[in-house]
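Inverse folding, one chain.
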């Protein structure tokens, strides 16, 4: 259900060296928090959806897959500046109230 190793891979690609430590800490904390939430809620979800429990988790994984395909830029052979420009170009498609 969780993003797995993606946060660690993307942080090193998307952040400049001076912010990577903080970004890694935040990503690791969020990943562990999501794991704890998953573990604490599994029994109640399993009780409510018994034979279909993993369809819920499959839906979450599919959501993350589509999110990654649609919004995470390709970083191979690109500088941090090029990646930043691409992310800014993607963000400009949204209204200012969403971007801020």
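Residues assigned per position:
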């Amino acid at each position: 259900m969780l993003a797995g190793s993606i946060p660690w891979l993307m942080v090193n690609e998307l952040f400049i060296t001076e912010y990577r430590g903080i970004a890694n800490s935040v990503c690791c904390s969020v990943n562990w928090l999501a794991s704890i939430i998953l573990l604490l809620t599994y029994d109640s979800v399993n009780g409510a959806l018994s034979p279909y429990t993993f369809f819920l988790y499959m839906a979450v994984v599919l959501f993350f897959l589509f999110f990654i395909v649609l919004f995470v830029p390709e970083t191979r052979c690109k500088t941090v500046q090029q990646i930043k420009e691409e992310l800014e170009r993607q963000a400009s498609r949204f209204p200012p109230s969403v971007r801020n």
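The radius of gyration is 17 Å. Helices lie at 6-14, 17-49, 53-71, 80-91, 96-99.
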